[in-house]
Amino acid sequence: MTKGFKQKIHQKNTDNSGFGDNASGRFINKDGLPNVSRKGISVFNRFSWYHTMLDLSTFQFLSYLVIAYILVNLFFALIYYLIGVEHLTGIDKSDPINEFIDVFFFSSQTFTTVGYGRIAPVGCMASLVATFEAFLGLLTFAIATGLFYGRFSRPRAYLKFSDIALIAPFKDKTALMFRLAPYKNNALTDAEIIVSTAIEVMEDSIPKSKFYTLTTQLNKINTLALNWTIVHMINEDSPFYGFTEEDFTNTDIEIIVHVRAFDEVFSNTVVQRSSYISNEIIYGAKFVPMYYPDKENLSTVLDLDKINDYQKADIPNLKQEQRS
Predict the structure, then answer these.
(1) How far apart are CA 302 and CA 291, in angstroms?
(2) How buried is residue 103: exposed, middle or buried, by Cβ count under 10 Å (0-12/13-18/19+)?
(3) Of the residues 146, 155, 188, 205, which has the fewest C-beta atoms closer than 10 A?
(4) What's the Rg (C-alpha) of the chain?
(5) Closest Cα to residue 111, out of 156, 86, 80?
């Protein structure tokens, strides 16, 4: 941290950030979720299994369903096997492996209420277990269907943020920039962005985070069809006014981004968040354009592979501002 650091952060900090001064670490993860762990409450009350299942990736969600399905059927197959295969008709009794395989598939048929009929329970105990398993299968598939619908029907912003933010030249001055772009064919309108920053300062030898709202050149657009480069001008009203490259490197900084837009298909508001910390801010660079006309010049191509592409650029104005 360079000398005179406190004098550089002279703007009034905001009190409505949602995080206290003594919070530590990254505030918002790259996936937009708060970087907060909770204690003083049981694990079952700490997590909402419904929200957890909805937030899983498609691969994780399907994997958990398949694993749970196999484990449940293995559990019931073991119960049937312990009751005795003589209480199930149509079992291949040539060897124990074939017996267990037949019992496992009987369990899966009962759980899914398919019931081909080749194997059937005989006796009160086996029939009772089969009845309970069929009932449990109905409830389980009802829950799974609801989760599938919830994941499919939930409106999302589907925005891709650049992995980096830049300190770049802008209109003979300097600006903090990052960009975002929609990556699906959803129609987003009335997109609005709120950007704030957390800067760690020392007060009485105790590190504390001060929060500031960052003004942007454009905080609302009518239609979000191409990429949107967010620009925060570093001037006298910016908390980064007078910062050098060393300040950005050696100071704990986090840029917190909150985007809200209206999804015309769902007729609902969607929200997405992200953040950038000090080692994700590149000093002296500018973004490379990521959209261009197609070969026939009839439409615009948005190349999402270029969202992080940048080139080096000179930053002379910060030094001039410091000397003045």
Answers:
(1) 4
(2) buried
(3) 205
(4) 29
(5) 80
Return all residues near 45 (Cβ < 8 A) that are at least 6 apart: none
Residue type, 218: L
Q: How many angstroms from the chain centroid is the CA of residue 124?
A: 50
Q: Is 301 exposed, middle or buried (0-12, 13-18, 19+ CB in 10 A)?
A: exposed
pLDDT in tens, 247-296: 898 889 999 999 999 998 888 999 999 999 999 999 999 999 999 998 89
281, 253 contact by CB (below 8 A): yes
Residues 153-192 have pLDDT tens digits of 888 899 999 999 999 999 888 999 999 999 998 889 999 9
Measured in whole angstroms, the distance separating CA 157 from the mean position of its chain's CA atoms is 11
Separation between Cα atoms, residue 199 and residue 210, nearest integer Å:
5
* Distances from the Cα of 193 to the Cα of 177, 220, 243, 258, 259, angstroms: 13, 6, 24, 6, 4
Average pLDDT (57-82) is 94
In this prediction, residue 94 has a pLDDT band, given cuts at 50, 70 and 90, of confident
Q: What does the chain come to in residues? A: 324
